[in-house]
Specification:
- By secondary structure, the chain is of the alpha+beta class.
- Helix 2 crosses helix 3.
- Helix content is 38%, strand content 21%.
- It contains three helices and five strands; from the N terminus they run ββββαααβ.
- It has a domain of 55 residues.
- The longest helix has 18 residues.
């Protein structure tokens, strides 16, 4: 998967407007805007999806995850956030928000 050219510190990401999602029990399912793809999110991706309800930077999301799980190594948290955000962007489930 190609890494989008975004700045982890300053680029604000949010849900793509056309994505529908459903919560079933503890699980979150995303429906791509094209209506052809459904994705079930793992716990980390689900937590980040909830955070993207409001535009946030990767750094902000990593800080929230790190505060919730202080035992996790900061580099691991950052890598996980970058990977999930990259997948959301590349898959068309999230988008860069201009102007904050």
């Amino acid at each position: 998967m190609t890494q989008p050219l975004i700045d982890f510190e300053t680029t604000r990401i949010a849900h793509h407007e056309g994505v529908q999602f459903r919560t079933v029990g503890e699980e979150i399912f995303l429906v791509h805007p094209d209506g052809e793809q459904i994705h079930n999110l793992n716990p980390m991706a689900a937590a980040l999806w909830r955070l993207l309800e409001h535009p946030a930077t990767g750094r902000e999301m990593a800080g929230i995850v790190q505060a919730a799980f202080p035992i996790m190594a900061p580099a691991k948290v950052e890598d996980d956030v970058k990977r999930v955000v990259t997948e959301f962007l590349a898959g068309g489930f999230a988008e860069v928000k201009k102007g904050g």
